[in-house]
Write a structure and sequence with these properties.
By secondary structure, the protein is of the alpha/beta class. The chain has two domains: 118 residues, 3-Layer(aba) Sandwich (Rossmann fold), CATH 3.40.50.720; 174 residues, Dihydrodipicolinate Reductase, domain 2, CATH 3.30.360.10. Helix content is 36%, strand content 26%. It contains ten helices and 15 strands.
Amino acid sequence: MTAKIRFAIVGAGGIAASYAHAFVDHMDAELVAVADVRLEAAEKTAAIVGCRAYDSADAIADADDIDAVIVATPPLTHEAISTNLLEHGKNVLCEKPFTIGVDSAHRMLTAARRAGRTITMASKFRYVSDVSRARSYIDDGLIGEVVLFENAFTSRVDMSNRWNGDPAISGGGVLIDNGAHSLDLTRYFLGPLVDVHAVEGRRLQPLPVEDTAQLFVRSAAGVMGTIDLSWSINKERESYIEIHGLNGTIRIGWKVSKYKLSSSSEWVIFGNGYDKVQAFRGNIGNFARHLRDGEKLVISACDAVANVAAIDAAYRSLNRADWTRLPEEAFV
């Protein structure tokens, strides 16, 4: 039997529970430990698979039976925790947003190179089956040349008592939170992004950060993308991605995904929608097989840096109310 990669999770918030469920009966990976400064939270997450619980990331770093660690703590802590883990010989799968600032991202990659270990960003939507299938359709030319990419991640979520709304911890608001997914998906479908224009909506929640924003992006190939982000409205859309090509349209939805060619009046269903646990299982599996078998990472370290660079540029644009050029890190 092929050995499974042994994982730990640092940070036992809500997303950690989703990760823990994704490890159940996983063919390539097993969860052996969970750590959180709140030991009770770590124990609760660990109980999902029956593994150990610790009250600090240092305990994970010092453990000898851990190959890889998922860092699922608030963004401000990502660099320090990830670097410490790398220096202790652990490979790191760091939740989005990868970190706060491009300089921080480069330091994390430098730490990985010095340690001879792997680090990259976890971002579940690239691993949704319907997303990867849609990408293959585009690569095969199903809808012809892509003209416009549209994404919307909008839902009503009270952020008044959550760390996501505290810029000292999160690095920003909905733009860095939901927008990290959006910009990664945009780059996944369109290739390198070169320009971004961000506009903030009226703040509806009593927060020091943006809760509603729109992004307009342009790829190196000249394709336009539009992104709607909000914690305060729900656009009630069946699809969260629409990709329009010269010969048709692809819709990736929460419950069903489908495409329609311009030569036909019928929509063709190709997927059953968003499955969070499946997406996490895919992310874990890809990282595990990369470490064990050399499988290509779906999200590379360069993708992680490019995502941070795009977010940085979007915030500069938000402050300037104008188009902003992305730095070279985003063009790789």
